[in-house]
Amino acid sequence: MRTARPLHTLTMAWGCLWLVGCATSPTTLQYTPLLQPEGASAITGKSGWATRTYAVAAANPLATDAGRQVLQSGGSAVDAAIAVQMVLTLVEPQSSGIGGGAFLLHFDGKSTQAFDGRETAPAGATPSLFLNGDGKPMPFIDAVVGGRAVGVPGTVRMLALAHQQHGRLPWAELFKPAIALATQGFRVSPRMATLLASEQHLFKDPVAAVYFLDAQGQPWKAGHLLRNPELAAVLQRIADTGPDALMTGDVAQAMVDEVRKHPGNPGTLSLDDLRAYQPVVRAPLCFDYTVAPRNYRICGMPPPSSGAVAIGQILGMLQQTGAQHLPLVQGLPTADWLHLYTEAARLAFADRAQYLADPAFVQPPAGSWNSLLAPAYLASRARHIDTSPDGKRMQSVLPGNPGATPLAYATMTDQPEYGTSHISIVDAYGNALAMTTTIEDGWGARLMVNRGTGLSGGFLLNNELTDFSFAPSDASGKPVANRVEPGKRPRSSMAPTLVFDKTTGQLVMSAGSPGGAFIIHFTAKTLYGALNWGLNAQQAINLPNFGALGGPTLLEDKRFSPETIQALKARDHTVVEMPMPSGLQAIERTSTGYFGGADPRREGIVSGD
Questions:
Q1: What is the β-pairing status of strands 593-598 and 294-300?
Q2: Which of 150, 513, 523, 549 could join 584 in a cystine, given CB atoms 3.0 to 4.6 angstroms apart?
Q3: Sequence-ordered list of residues with C-beta below 8 angstroms from that of 138, at least 6 positions apart, any chain
Q4: Phi then psi for 546, rounded to 5 degrees?
Q5: How far is CA 286 from CA 114, 149, 456, 533, 561, in A?
Q6: Strand, coil or helix: what is 319?
Q7: DSSP-assigned states of every residue in 225-269
Q8: Rounded to whole angstroms, what are the CA distances from 12 to 49, 117, 279, 431?
Q9: How far is residue 162's CA from residue 447's CA, in Å, rounded to a whole number?
């Protein structure tokens, strides 16, 4: 059985020569660009992909193909993830990039590590960061656009740390695909074109406007050949000298200037903030999950992510309700099952709002985050769910208290969460990873960093600080655990997940999704579909989306029958049908190798040998 490596902050001693990285078997990557991304379609039917020895699942075909070529050249899962992320910075800039943060869960065949590259609040941030002059929380979009919400980006330093430990190819080789595509150009994908056409704030930034708009001031359409020479130059710097090329020098200064000199909504990001940023290696948060006759061990990110805790609570409470005896009917979840799921979700989100925040600032209840996953505690929580044949929705939901001590913090009110992208990879050496990466809202803070050397383009900055509670305390003055504090990592819903056979220790699945707070539901759905309903990865991803954040029961638009909706309403659920565009990626082990699935709602694909 695997053992988790201890929780500790690793000092970034960049002792490796970055031209050769920490490679153990130097190889020259001969990158060949993929000719064309998939065609234009909001929903693209996908049947999944079978591979033999390795696989990459990512949100854009160009990114997936870059990762595949790295694995084909002898690279590790981490090597491939670096190449994928750099290409996503270019081709999916609305979702993630070098100006944001990420969580990476890595399995080396023996043990699992959780690499935390989450952004941090600048030293100048205060608990009142998102309060108006009248002391009330400002509107979400007013906080997002500009420098106010920009956190210290952590993705590149986190990936460099993971590469030091698990890389096989030279660091510089892994940037070749993104640099080639940025220099030669890539075709704007249908998804990027659609999001550009509906964007209202990005073009207020002059650098972004020059890059994303044509001569008539219109957003680029799908198929346009777009080049980003500024990003190519920055990536070449990082390839040559490591992450300090991003976090110090003229690139860092350009980031600081973009944030602090914003004309209407400046932030406090400083050169010292960038220079001081450190990723963290944590012990993963794991829990047991039994679907007779198999016993699983599911591992995810601990806080500041809320993903693994919430997923573990939902799955654990469902086991207490009899939900496991409710099959799919005509390939869909029934109203009876959805009632149980959404009630469990509401209970989990109540605990999430009460307890979860950066562990460097907040102590877990009863001294351990696993107290929230203890079977006895989940059984006590599940007793709040009406499991009778015509059981009704709970009228109110309060957080539990596994520590049986007075609650030290106030409950955080619901806030919007957006953005992100997910990557799942298995390599030929027995390594696997799940990595969820983000700049938060679509297009982040709407700030494009450019050094001003005459090259067009650049990269976008995150608005990750809006994942903190806008209100630092409740009406009585009790503080919110996830309030803004200098150096703090905002709570996240990102849920990169690895599933193992508990008996053999063998990897079963890597999975995850973008989607803000709905990441928890998208990932839980996929896990439940695969482990409980026996679906393959693609079939589980294809299931309609659903969830609850504490209030109404939310269902993916036009995916459930009127009878199902009426049955939920008869149980007193307020049902809201809405678009729920997940971006799930998953790879599962099979008897002949691997089988990968990619969300039909996005442009991702799976590729391998």
A1: unpaired
A2: 513
A3: 130, 131, 132, 470
A4: -165, 170
A5: 11, 31, 45, 22, 36
A6: coil
A7: EE--HHHHHHHHHHHHH-THHHHSHHHHHHHHHHHHT-SSS----
A8: 38, 13, 8, 23
A9: 28
Q: Catalytic: 420?
A: yes
**Amino acid sitting at position 151:** G
| Count of CA atoms in the C-beta half-sphere (13 A) of 369 | 26
Q: How far apart are the first and last CA of the chain?
A: 28
Contacts of residue 368, defined as CB under 8 A and 6 or more positions apart, other chains included, come to: none
Q: What is the pLDDT of residues 246-279, one digit of tens each?
A: 999 999 999 999 999 999 999 999 999 999 999 9
Tens of pLDDT, residue by residue over 476-524, are 999 999 999 999 999 999 999 999 999 999 999 999 999 999 999 999 9
Phi, psi of 96 (to 5 degrees): -155, 180
Task: With beta carbons less than 8 A apart as the criterion, state whether 537 and 597 touch.
Answer: yes
Read off the pLDDT of residues 76-117 as tens digits, 9 standing for 90 and up.
999 999 999 999 999 999 999 999 999 999 999 999 999 999
**Catalytic one of 64, 268, 411, 420:** 420
Determine the length of the chain.
609
Give bridge partners of residue 590 from the DSSP assignment: 593
> What angle do the packed helices 335-355 and 307-318 form, to 10 degrees?
140
